[in-house]
Write a structure and sequence with these properties.
Length: 356
């Protein structure tokens, strides 16, 4: 696959994608990451000295840096994972989401446009710009509303979702107006190794491990489709290889679950993994708190298009994937303990974000 510029590659999904591509020998990867609170060099430890990996600390909103990387490494694709992504943080402080998710994508597109202008026709035809987005751009669904599809109108509910929606529109506009060969993907909720511990799955695992309350918004009946990060990375690879320019692909795990049932499933997995824990049964730690503003009730994705056109489908079942994820966090305390201990605004992360 040649060389890929992966932005946000020291984060959760980006880091897993870098591992997949580099360790398998599928591609040479240049990782660009700003190393904000959610990006960590430790996530890339397995590829830090690999000859087919190059890490650069920097911002997608720095056009000179991005231009230099494109011109030096001559990538065949840019995959943009770089984003501020936590809904609660976007409600408390939306400015970073506007700066990274909108302005950053603008500058990344402009640098890519300039780079392509100097390429041969064959190189431009081969090139792909993949914008990794979210199903949250579609807003929420009622109980009888069916599922999201590629043609579903955007109706974002949070500053985070609105910023990602704006980025998607920019990518499509640069594709149509300037012929940037772009593809947009919208995924459902991811889980798996290296996810920052403020998100629901790792937060539940680590709070339960430490005997903290497992706080759930509202009554926990919010429904999400869950997708293992390894399946998501495989889908992105297929999009680069065979996705059609100008198209959108929805990537989902066909694994809908309420937040309450998800937390209960994680507690059951923890009970199996830690039968001697003083906190068994871990479900006794569950408690409910007031719902957050604008909390979407239900997301559901139809991944039929990518399944039909590109031959991809999710392989991981939710029960197996959750237990494997529990075991990964229990086995990798050296990765998450420094993050949990770090201060964000004067509070430890474990107390700052008790829920997601």
């Amino acid at each position: 696959m040649g060389t890929i510029l992966v932005t946000g590659g020291a984060g959760f999904i980006g880091g897993n994608f870098v591992h997949r591509m580099v360790l398998s020998g599928r591609a040479r990867v240049v990782t660009l990451d700003k190393l904000t609170y959610a990006g960590h060099r430790a996530t890339l430890a397995a590829v830090s000295d690999h000859p087919n990996h190059c890490f650069v600390e920097g911002d997608i909103a720095d056009p000179e840096l991005v231009a230099s990387l494109l011109n030096e490494h001559q990538p065949d694709a840019v995959v943009n994972f770089a984003a501020e992504s936590h809904v609660d943080r976007s409600i408390d402080s939306p400015a970073p989401f506007i700066e990274t998710n909108i302005a950053g994508v603008y500058w990344l597109l402009e640098a890519t446009r300039a780079y392509l202008s100097g390429q041969t026709t064959a190189a431009r035809d081969r090139f792909r710009f993949v914008q990794v987005s979210t199903d949250e751009v579609f807003g929420d669904l009622g109980a009888g509303d069916g599922v999201f599809a590629e043609a579903t109108p955007y109706a974002p509910s949070s500053p985070y979702a609105a910023s990602k929606a704006a980025a998607d529109h920019l990518v499509r506009a640069w594709g149509r107006t300037y012929a940037v060969p772009a593809i947009v993907t919208n995924c459902s909720n991811n889980y798996g190794p290296f996810q920052f511990p403020e998100k629901l799955v790792p937060l539940t695992i680590l709070n339960a491990f430490e005997g903290r309350p497992l706080l759930i918004y509202g009554d926990g009946s919010q429904v999400r489709d869950w997708l293992h990060v390894a399946d998501h990375c495989a889908a992105i690879e297929r999009v680069i290889e065979a996705g059609r320019v100008g198209e959108t692909y929805l990537i989902g795990g066909r694994a809908p679950c309420t937040n309450l049932d998800l937390v209960r499933a994680l507690c059951v997995a923890l009970d199996r993994c830690l039968p001697e824990s003083a906190h068994c049964p871990h479900a006794d730690l569950i408690a409910f708190v007031e719902n957050r503003p604008g909390h979407d009730r239900r997301y559901a994705i139809d991944p039929g298009k990518i399944e039909r056109e590109l031959g991809w489908s999710a392989r991981e079942t939710l029960d197996r994937g959750l237990e494997e994820t529990v075991r990964w966090y229990l086995d990798n305390a050296a990765w998450w303990r420094p993050i949990r201990a770090r201060s964000y605004g004067g509070e430890r992360l474990g107390r700052l974000a008790e829920r997601a």
